[in-house]
């Protein structure tokens, strides 16, 4: 590449009509932007382009004129709507030529699977003259490395696992040598139990523009994610800055922070149950098994999750959970009394240390003035008592959101109760606690 060093800004182009019309989500660009940041390259713009040769060529010209680097995904397949090769050749002002090693690799790909290469796949071995092919160890489409108006450009397949493998093996090492000397590292912390505005007020100074590290927030289904971005001369310094910021956030926000990175509410609950050597069971009505599904998403959840009773009908609440007909008649299925009885019944039926129950009105119908859509009762049977909490999740909230939030609220009630019990049982920090030295 002509540019020896100091690539600071990149453009990412995602090619595919399916992305424009919403049939597929562009996950590649976000992943690439994070990888670029890790070597100190800031993504200046992400552009989604349909499978139209003129529009793609124009986007490449604009990116070449404005950025220090172009990453392009998609459009390298064998069909008529795969136009990336031709667009690169047009912008570079060179013809397409067959790359013999790539052609042999494509033939070998099919031969290893006992098939003969279809003639249409030969086009995938064509690259602009003067460019270089980037080997694809996971599929048939090689990538292309080329300069466009002096700007390095790397075109990669749109299939995510093919693109990621190619980028990390063929592109990232080269970019690390060409990038500026500074890096940008990020860390996500996840919160539950307070609103985004409330959390934002508590950490307002940490979110001030121009601060380093800087904290941002993102909300989704009751979970508030805090993103910490740290810029530094090298990764160890950036990691140290992230650690310091995390300690400060945990000191301010306490146990509402339940995890970081890929950790979830259910994994935090699982870690606490394993540490306590205790078990949990569930009894669900309006969530229809969603709480049990979340708990069993965690590998190894059989160590603590015994099972659940899906008591959608009142008769099942009576027969399997021991909820009396009188309680149902007097208070209704969506009530504090029924949530309490369901939790007690689940713990008794499955012989668990803990039990969670959910009963509510998920809508869109079934609500009333006294019991509107979005009303949910959560019962929590601890080893010593039964607690019931009432939540109002919104009359106009979509059914699927009410169900999801109810399940997450139940997990969080269990998590907080486990934390309290762990603190009372031992002076040592427990897994999942708010101890700064050991994130959840």
Q: State the CATH architecture of the largest domain.
A: 3-Layer(aba) Sandwich
Instruction: Using the coordinates above, name the CATH class of the largest domain.
Output: Alpha Beta
Number of strands: 17
| Approximate strand percentage | 15-25%
Shape: elongated
Number of contiguous helices: 14
CATH homology-level superfamily of the largest domain = MoaB/Mog-like domain
* Main β sheet profile: 6 strands, mixed
Q: How do the strands line up in the largest sheet?
A: 2-1-3-8-7-6
Low-confidence stretches: 429-440
Number of domains: 3
CATH topology of the largest domain: Molybdenum Cofactor Biosythetic Enzyme, Chain A
The first-to-last residue Cα distance is 44 Å
Give Rg in angstroms: 27 Å
User: Averaging pLDDT over every residue, what do you get?
Assistant: 92
Q: What is the structural class?
A: alpha/beta
Q: What share of residues is helical? A: 25-40%
List keywords for this structure.
440 residues, alpha/beta, Molybdenum Cofactor Biosythetic Enzyme, Chain A, Alpha-Beta Plaits, Maf protein, 3 domains, six-stranded mixed beta sheet, five-stranded mixed beta sheet, 14 helices, disordered C terminus
């Amino acid at each position: 590449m002509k540019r020896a060093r100091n690539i600071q800004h990149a453009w990412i182009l995602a090619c595919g009509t399916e992305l424009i019309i919403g049939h597929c989500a562009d996950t590649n660009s976000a992943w690439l932007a994070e990888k670029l940041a890790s070597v100190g390259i800031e993504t200046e713009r992400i552009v989604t382009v349909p499978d139209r040769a003129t529009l793609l060529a124009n986007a490449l010209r604009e990116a070449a004129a404005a950025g220090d680097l172009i990453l392009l995904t998609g459009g390298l397949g064998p069909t008529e709507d795969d136009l990336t090769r031709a667009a690169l050749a047009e912008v570079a002002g060179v013809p397409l030529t067959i790359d013999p090693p790539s052609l042999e690799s494509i033939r070998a790909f099919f031969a290893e699977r006992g098939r003969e290469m279809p003639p249409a796949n030969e086009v995938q071995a064509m690259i602009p003259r003067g460019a270089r092919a980037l080997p694809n160890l996971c599929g048939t489409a090689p990538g292309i490395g080329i300069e466009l108006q002096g700007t390095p450009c790397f075109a990669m397949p749109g299939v995510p696992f093919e693109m990621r493998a190619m980028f990390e093996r063929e592109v990232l090492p080269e970019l690390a040598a060409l990038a500026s000397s500074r890096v940008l590292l990020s860390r996500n912390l996840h919160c539950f139990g307070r609103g985004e505005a409330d959390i934002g007020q508590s950490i307002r100074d940490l979110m001030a523009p121009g601060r380093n590290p800087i904290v941002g927030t993102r909300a989704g289904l009751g979970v508030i994610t805090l993103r910490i971005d740290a810029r530094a001369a090298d990764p160890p310094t950036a990691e140290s800055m992230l650690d310091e910021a995390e300690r400060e956030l945990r000191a301010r926000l306490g146990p509402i922070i339940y995890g970081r990175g890929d950790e979830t509410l259910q994994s935090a609950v699982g870690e606490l149950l394993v540490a306590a050597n205790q078990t949990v069971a569930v009894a669900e009505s309006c969530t229809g098994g969603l709480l049990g599904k979340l708990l069993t998403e965690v590998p190894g959840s059989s160590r603590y999750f015994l099972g659940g009773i899906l008591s959608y009908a009142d008769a099942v609440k009576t027969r399997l959970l021991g909820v009396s007909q009188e309680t149902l008649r007097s208070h209704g299925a969506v009530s504090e009394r029924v949530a309490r009885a369901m939790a007690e019944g689940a713990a008794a039926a499955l012989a668990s240390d803990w039990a969670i129950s959910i009963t509510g009105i998920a809508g869109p119908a079934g609500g009333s003035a006294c019991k509107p859509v979005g009303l949910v009762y959560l019962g929590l049977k601890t080893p010593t008592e039964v607690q019931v909490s009432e939540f109002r999740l919104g009359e106009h909230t979509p059914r699927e959101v009410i169900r999801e939030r109810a399940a997450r609220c139940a997990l969080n009630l269990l998590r907080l109760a486990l934390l309290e019990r762990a603190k009372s049982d031992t002076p040592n920090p427990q897994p999942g606690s708010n101890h700064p030295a050991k994130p959840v």
